[in-house]
Amino acid sequence: MAAGRNRTTERLVGAIFVAALLLNPPVLGLFGVDATVLGIPLLFFYVFVAWAAVIAMIAASARRLGRAAEAGSGGAPRGAAGGAVPSADGRSAGRGGTAADGRR
Fold it and tell me: 101 FRET partner, CA 20 to 30 A, in 45, 73, 91, 94?
């Protein structure tokens, strides 16, 4: 599971670098010409498509990260029914009450 999480982290960092490259002013300058795509200025069209591509890359990585987390925890999110969630003072609340009221 740790290897999958590291790979996903690398993909997310890669997506940030791709976004920085695609939305860098010198690259944007290449599309600042008098041309249109479907009636939209080329620069606006490029920014929209580049931004959508970055969002799609991040969404795909987040989906993989979510699947890896579910597989590692047996499908139940942390703190789900049956799992003990520690309270602020470090004691486990469990099912029967809260750590604050002292009942178990």
Answer: 73
